[in-house]
Design brief:
heterodimer; A: 2 domains; B: alpha+beta; five-stranded antiparallel β-sheet; three-stranded mixed β-sheet; 12 strands; globular
Chain lengths: 227, 437
């Protein structure tokens, strides 16, 4: 079995959660070997009882779906280990989220390439990976004190949806990236995150709104409304 | 935090933008002096240099290397340019902390917080192709981790292509420039392989690490082609060292160590640290010298190297025929100076410059702090005969960088060095090499 110990090193995850993640990762590996693998064969690979697996997952499909959910959990664990994460700029936080997810995806690249579209993008209902991703994005934007007031008008559900679609675009790029250690994907994410930061940190919108407000209050239209 | 322009279009745009900015500065300067009759050329140079530096630092990589070579060649450019360009040796905008973390994860297999007992996400120094982070290993060893900017290797080819286009418009016989461009390109590509640099660190550590010269120790298990880990060297860069107003004795000691380090490399006739600019040296209060950055180490062909060294005693003897013969061998002269005025101009300039350059080897001690000597060297570089064709063997690019770089360091230190030992080395190397000649 491929070792992915780095994920758990130094984390505060409880045993059950750690086991769930181990099962989902082993499931992803088994899926690549044989998409029709059985829970028994998975238990054998993990050297645990299949009963232990059934206690945590009702079926095989849930194990495979959980692989994606757990990536966000692992990411959350990792940011807790970063000193001064709260000082990170918007672009740093955004690129950290996306780069970490791709770093994690890389560990099971074959599985991800085989299943991401089917399980996450074309899922009948919204996959919890998508909702968790959007929550993380929401968290990043809400905790950033450097955003301009005007830019907050842009932050809404449609915006989070568009960022998830952007992530899917990055996924498409990464899946075809042949550069050394996905250097081109890294560069693309870096450029995009820097651009987003520029848009959300700029005070141009604030100044524009300020000017607009002034003009409005001193316009005949404002006098008319007052009357 | 800035992102790194990697595409040919983006980098070409920056080259063009830089040209426009500098052009605009000159236009506004001439307009001002025409309208007001005032002319502040110094302010113009400073503004243009700042614009040039500002744009070049965005390019990092190859373009910054060009900026660095400008700064070594102080005297060739107006002082205001050199002053601003010297910043290229230390200040480059660092890359995003998340990116550093991710690059380390991809290269070394785990995130910095998992690999190291501590890792400073803020770069200690940002240079042309990578940035350095201070970290502590789990066994307590303090290390420097150099992380290469993503995509820098790809930019070399596009920058070289842009430089080639630029040179072709300037140089009269453009094919002649090819060997020089290829030499620079090969060296730059080699510099992006941190495993090769690690091996060089290892070899230099074995050869030179001593009481007076300290070099880092390579940590191969935490190094890849794009991430390099080595022991951390304490010390300060030249400007900071001089700000602390060291005594003349300490300055002399530093200068002597640098001078001896350079000549010991010649004695070994092995590799030479070919990037002699202030950013690659650290100094301590006792006059010891730390050597860092082993990305650009060179081994020169024996024949060229011996001819190059022979320039020193030959210039001192001032035998014109001997000098001429050597110049032909080193491809400095392309025709007979007695018949061609252009060659004559070149010959006279090189002969005088060569003599001045060889002056430290005349007596047993030499004062690099002598302002007259500084002026003399600066005067030669400023008044070099303008030519639109390349001169000299392609290996001059690096020998000059090393030798002239050393002189500039010593002149900036204002130190006096004992040259006895260095003269013995050059004598020995030349006599051992040329028994039959």
């Amino acid at each position: 079995m491929k070792e992915t110990n780095y994920i758990f090193q130094g984390t505060t995850m409880d045993k059950e959660l750690t086991l769930k993640i181990r099962i989902s990762e082993a499931g992803a590996e088994r899926y690549v070997e044989n998409p029709r693998f059985t829970i028994q064969s998975l238990a054998k690979k993990l050297k645990i009882d299949s009963k232990d697996i059934f206690e945590l997952f009702p079926n095989r499909s849930e194990i495979l779906n959980y692989y994606y959910d757990s990536r966000i959990l692992v990411y959350k664990e990792q940011i807790q280990m970063i000193d001064n994460y709260s000082d990170y700029s918007l672009s740093e936080k955004l690129s950290l989220l996306i780069l970490t997810l791709f770093d994690l995806f890389h560990e099971h690249r074959e599985y991800v390439l085989m299943t991401y579209k089917k399980k996450v993008l074309c899922s009948m209902s919204m996959h919890s990976f998508e909702s968790q991703f959007k929550n993380e994005i929401k968290q990043i934007f809400h905790s950033d004190r450097n955003l301009s007031s005007g830019s907050s008008l842009l932050i809404n559900r449609a915006f989070y949806y568009s960022l998830f679609q952007t992530f899917n675009g990055f996924f498409y790029f990464w899946s075809r990236d042949t550069s050394n250690n996905y250097e081109n994907s890294t560069a693309l994410i870096d450029k995009w995150a820097s651009f987003v930061q520029e848009v959300f940190y700029t005070r141009i919108a604030d100044k524009g709104l300020d000017l607009g407000k002034f003009l409005f209050y001193h316009s005949p239209l404002s006098q008319f409304i007052k009357r | 935090m800035t992102n790194f322009p990697t595409t040919k279009y983006e980098r070409g745009k920056i080259f063009a933008k830089t040209g426009l900015k500098v052009g605009k500065n000159y236009a506004s300067h001439f307009l001002k002096s025409w309208i007001n009759g005032e002319s502040d050329r110094s302010a113009l140079y400073k503004k243009s240099a700042e614009d040039l530096f500002g744009e070049f630092t965005k390019l990092r990589g190859t373009a910054l290397k060009i900026a660095q070579s400008f700064s070594i060649d102080q005297g060739f450019l107006p002082d205001e340019f050199s002053e601003v360009m010297t910043q290229a040796q230390y200040k480059v905008p660092p890359i995003n902390r998340s990116l550093v973390r991710s690059i380390i994860r991809r290269e070394l297999g785990a995130y910095p917080e998992q690999l190291f007992a501590s890792f400073n996400p803020e770069a200690e120094a940002a240079a042309s192709i990578g940035q350095v982070h201070k970290a502590t290993l789990k066994d307590g060893t303090v290390v420097a981790v150099k992380v290469q900017y993503p995509g820098v290797r790809d930019t070399i080819s596009s920058d070289i292509a842009l430089a080639r286009t630029l040179f072709r418009t300037i140089v009269s016989n453009s094919e002649q420039i090819e060997p020089y461009i290829n030499e620079v390109k090969e060296t730059l590509i080699k510099e992006t392989d941190y495993l090769q640099e690690g091996e060089s660190i290892d070899r230099f550590h074995k050869r030179f690490n001593s009481k007076t010269i300290f070099t880092p120790k390579w940590i191969p298990e935490l190094s890849t082609e794009r991430v390099l880990t080595m022991t951390y060297l304490e010390g300060v860069h030249l400007n900071e060292f001089l700000k602390n107003e060291p005594t003349q004795d300490v300055r002399d000691q530093v200068g002597q160590n640098l001078w001896d380090f350079f000549h010991n490399q010649i004695r070994d006739r092995d590799e030479i640290h070919a990037d002699t600019h202030p950013g690659n040296f650290l100094f301590d209060e006792n006059g010891n010298v730390g050597v860092i950055d082993f990305g650009c180490v060179k081994s020169f062909p024996e024949k060229f190297f011996m001819d190059y060294l022979l320039l020193l005693p030959t210039h001192l003897r001032q035998d014109e025929d001997e000098i001429k013969e050597l110049y032909y061998k080193l491809e400095i002269l392309k025709g007979d100076p007695d018949e061609l005025p252009k060659e004559k101009l070149f010959f006279d300039f090189c002969k005088n410059y060569g003599f001045t350059f060889a002056m430290p080897y005349m007596e047993d001690t030499f004062d690099f702090g002598d302002p007259e000597y500084n002026k003399l060297i600066a005067g030669y570089t400023k008044n070099a005969p303008f030519t639109t064709e390349p001169r000299g063997n392609k290996h001059f690019i690096y020998t000059t960088r090393v030798h002239l770089g050393l002189y500039h360091l010593l002149m900036k230190l204002g130190c006096q060095v004992d040259t006895t030992y260095s003269k013995t080395i050059i004598d020995e190397v030349l006599t051992n090499q040329l028994p039959g000649e």
